[in-house]
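Why predict the complex rather than its parts? Because the way molecules touch one another can change local conformation, and only a joint prediction can capture that. The input here totals 548 residues.
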Amino acid sequence: MTAAAAPPAPARPGFGSEMGRAAKAFPTLLRIGVSEVVAYRAEFLVWILTTNMPLVMLAIWHAVAADGPVGRFDQRAFTAYYLGVLAVRLLTSNWAVWQLSMEIRDGTLSAKLLRPIHPILALAAEHLSAVPMRAAVISPVVVIMLYSGWDRLLRHDPALLLILLASLVGAWLLIFFSMVLMGSLAFFMESALGIFELWLGVHAIFSGYLVPLEALPHWVRGAANVLPFRFMLGFPVETLVGLLGRHDALMALGAQWGYVALFGLAALWVWRVGLRTFSAYGG
Amino acid sequence: MALLRRYTRLFRVQVAISALTAMQYRTDFVVRGLIAILWMAVTLAPLLVVFGVRKTVAGWSFPESLVVVGWFTLLHAVLEGAVSPSLTAVVEHVRHGTLDFFLLKPADAQFLVSTAKIEPWHVVDVFGALAIFCYAFAKLGRWPRALEVGAGLAFLALAVVILYSFWILVVSASFWVVKVDNLSYLFGSLFDAARWPITIFRGALRIVFTFVFPIALLTTYPAMALLGKLDGKTALAALGGGLLFAAIARRVWRRALALYTSASS
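Output of the joint prediction:
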């Protein structure tokens, strides 16, 4: 390709107009995302099936709880908890870290930088548009979950329902920002994905993904309340199956959104600093 | 015989090249080692929690389950260190059309692609597995007899063959549907269930994990062999089934290869 004469640099748009433009583009981006998911539906289903660990853990706790409950959990409570984990996990997870680190490394990011929309916003739209399809796929799981957990579901408290909805949004944002943060590390180092794998390992324990946090030793639970992982998964699930009262849930919600703000700022900062070192090899 | 000698030499060369490549990225090497240790801890955590609540689960005591986890860790090392990396690369080769370069070489293509890439840091997992075995048997207060170790090793070979055959089937699928890299993730996630003794699972999961994706053959039976709990008939049936499976996988690979049209590059 020959270098075209550089067009006169456009005046840098103000922050307000940039957001306005993004808002206008967002519905279209979402539509594109949805049709992409539909086009690769087989692949999409395989990805969903990959999240099968909660079912395996459910089978194990079922065997354990066959001769009497474990703490506050009997067999039905375990079913509700792990199906809740499965549903929340599938609803809130995305693959931004793989996409971002790959695009940075192979240079496809250059093309996205040319678009008149912030690449992270475009990324968010892409991943957000998979949510409706994911919701459709998990609906049978949710029905079984509602049935087995009905007695204690949300403690039949409408306020907890609102908290749950807010916590799901918070969990999605927190996961997305943490992935952008670690994906952006690929600007600086080769092993960004390795670091993400370490993160996943810690997440598996401290988020309540493998084992309900209540069943863990005291010090692990203490650490989990401070670390960000519980707010990505365990907190919404605990609210859903009625393990948390109003007061505890509100406190946790505050902490969660605090983490959302923190990770959001950190992710944008790493992104900006990293972008300056980006030299777009290939593409 | 000469053929065998030739392939052994070829194998040694392939391993040496992989090791050299891996050693070039030293930071990555250390990070990967750390990840391996961390995942071992993550593997053990649910087990510790479960056996913190109960003395036995589905007839398995804590040290006995540790033997299963030991096998799981060992096979995980084989799978992630020697089987998956090469075969993930094949999927790429099929998509890009670079598989041509393997087909042109004067050696069996399946052998070449299967030994193309080895990730040596998974040796950490092997040591971890040995440590887990030692701890478990010390706790049991009973060490396996020579015959039981022999049976265990036979099962290890069988498990590797089965894992490998499964992978060859997944890779063969790439000749038909091209985009199967996420099938490999599905495979890995199913394999994760192998850290638990098969008797814990009931109903549909039990059937899936015995016949469809036989984690019973991969970890539970070898552990039972080491513990001296496996009778001879079951062992022979398992060995026969595994070998049959490998033969089928080889046939499917040949059929799939015949479909390859080279995507050009």
